[in-house]
Amino acid sequence: MEDCIFCKIIKKEIPSKIVYEDEEIIAFRDIKPVTPVHVLVIPKKHIESLLDLKEEDEKLIGKIYTVINKIARQEGIAEKGFRVIVNCGEDGGQEVKHLHYHLLGGRKLGIKICG
Ligand code: AMP
User: Looking at ligand 1, which atom is closest to the CA of residue 34?
Assistant: First the structure.
């Protein structure tokens, strides 16, 4: 997707602070962090939202959670805990139309976070 900001990050056309990358997944620091650790984990394949997932994506989505597990350990938030959020659609507060998982941690989280 040419005008997708996350696709541009994947292609390194715009800078980001990458914390993890493999052939299918990339994770980078959110530009406006709401917690001390705020990482976005995304598939490199352009999937617009959670509603656009297909059966063929099941393995990829499973892998995303394994990557989140790795990053949480790497960032030192595994022991105390963290939160993973996926916003979907307008009411869900999804601003960027490329499926992404917010990994939030580094402080005690309240009920209301990310919107
Ligand atoms: P959402 O509201 O779930 O669509 O979240 C989109 C997130 O992407 C927000 O938390 C933004 O701060 C973040 N974001 C937007 N542009 C960038 C960027 N260039 N680099 C890193 N994070 C970004």
Answer: 10
Question: Which pLDDT tens digit goes with each residue over 67-115?
Answer: 999 999 999 999 999 999 999 999 999 999 999 999 999 999 987 655 5
Alpha carbon of 52 to ligand 1 centroid (Å): 19
Nearest atom in ligand 1 to the alpha carbon of residue 14 is 19
d(CA 113, CA 111): 6
pTM for the model stands at: 0.96
Contacts by 11-20, CB closer than 8 A, 24 or more apart: 19/71, 19/74, 19/75, 20/67, 20/70, 20/71, 20/74
1 lines ligand 1 (CB under 6 A): no
Q: Is 98 a catalytic residue?
A: no
